[in-house]
Write a structure and sequence with these properties.
Elements: E1 2-5, H1 11-23, E2 27-32, E3 37-42, H2 50-55, E4 59-63, E5 83-85, E6 88-90, E7 96-100, H3 107-120, E8 124-126, H4 144-157, E9 161-164, E10 179-182, H5 190-195, E11 203-206, H6 213-225, E12 231-235, H7 253-260, E13 265-267, H8 269-273, H9 279-288, E14 293-297, H10 315-331
Parallel strand pairs: 7-8, 7-14, 8-9, 9-10, 10-11, 11-12, 12-13
Antiparallel strand pairs: 1-3, 1-4, 2-3, 5-6
Helix pairs in contact: 3-4, 3-10, 9-10
């Protein structure tokens, strides 16, 4: 349930009203906009008398929220959220680019790529330390040592870093990581999502391999309901009947999510197509569709990459893409 508060309501009256609602066992989410204040009531609101609420001196309007994702809903939070990590911002008119290798392999590799993508305009460095792989015989990542190399690249370049968390048991290693990525395979690992409520840092949540948009938003709700509202949504392609690309990029999800939720939405064109020559086209399409950014895989020697080299851009290719994206972002009224 949503309560729109009258503009002339005093701070004391509003605080007293919120206190009354909380005494009835409800959690109250307050959203202060430039034009109005909204209270979102979370809990069992069936016993509330709507007519009594409408008659309250502080209440302008009462609305019931049909969507099960309350905290993620734009109805609860009309203004678009801006999620910050270091000097990078997701939302608020920025088109933020995350770039780096699929897997951290060694110090020279990750630091060299970090310097290159920063020079081209990337705002966040990505790199996999723990790698969920379909085959148990594939490279599984360097683990904690990989995180150490990412943090060394962060110290050298100043770029905030993002890397994927696969298990609650790994959480202690992510203390200095700026953004925690939850991959497609863990999108509905609800115990892990609840644990991230206390992480105190942004969570990038990727859409599952065959998940609906509603399921993605419900997973975001798990993190937010546990106390962490810093969630970035990522469309990375879903599994369909076609196989000419690695996945099918659902670009229509971007404008829908922008309408339905206040959370920033980015696109991962690398995992969506699985072919490096297609990545620039999908990256431009993501910008045109209204995304708040993209995540791109970059490797200095894709042919020798230990993971997903076929979908990685070279630093030169990434630099060329960034020059093109700057023009697309300008048309969309965004800044790289």
């Amino acid at each position: 349930m949503i309560l729109v508060i009258k503009k002339n309501t005093s701070a004391d009256d509003l605080a007293a009203f919120i206190g009354q609602l909380e005494k009835q066992g409800l959690a109250v989410h307050r959203s202060d906009g430039t034009e109005q204040t909204i209270l979102g009531l979370i809990g069992d609101t069936r016993s509330l008398n709507e007519e009594s609420l409408k008659a309250h001196c502080a209440v302008s309007r009462v609305m019931r929220v049909q969507a099960p994702y309350k905290l993620a809903s734009r109805a609860f939070h009309p203004a678009s959220s801006v999620i910050r990590a270091g000097n990078a911002a997701f939302g608020g008119g920025a088109f933020t680019v995350i770039a780096g290798p699929c897997s951290v392999e060694n110090s020279a590799q990750v630091c060299g790529i970090a310097r290159s993508v920063k020079q081209s305009g990337a705002r966040v460095l990505r790199g996999g330390a723990f790698k969920p792989r379909t085959s148990p015989y594939s490279f599984q990542g360097m683990g904690g040592a990989g995180i150490d190399l990412l943090l060394a690249a962060k110290r050298e370049t100043g770029l905030p870093v993002i890397t994927e968390l696969m298990s609650i048991s790994q959480l202690g290693l992510f203390r200095d990581v700026d953004i925690i990525q939850i991959g497609a395979r863990n999108m509905q690992n609800f115990d892990l999502l609840k644990e991230l409520g206390g992480a105190g840092k942004p969570i990038l949540l990727k859409r599952g391999l065959a998940a609906t948009v509603k399921e993605l938003l419900m997973s975001a709700e798990y993190v937010m309901a546990a106390g962490n509202e810093q969630v970035i949504l990522c469309e990375r392609g879903i599994r369909t009947f076609d196989s000419y690309t690695r996945n099918t990029l659902d670009l229509s999800a971007v404008p829908f999510l922008q309408r339905e939720t206040h959370l920033p939405v980015i696109v991962d064109p690398s995992h969506a197509c699985g072919m490096n020559w297609m990545v620039p086209t999908l990256a431009k399409a993501a910008c045109a569709a209204g995304a708040d950014g993209i995540m791109v895989e970059v490797h200095d020697n894709p042919e020798c990459a230990l993971c997903d080299g076929e979908q990685s851009l070279t630093p030169a290719e990434f630099g060329a893409l960034m020059k093109t994206l700057s023009r697309y972002a300008e048309i969309e009224g965004k800044t790289l």
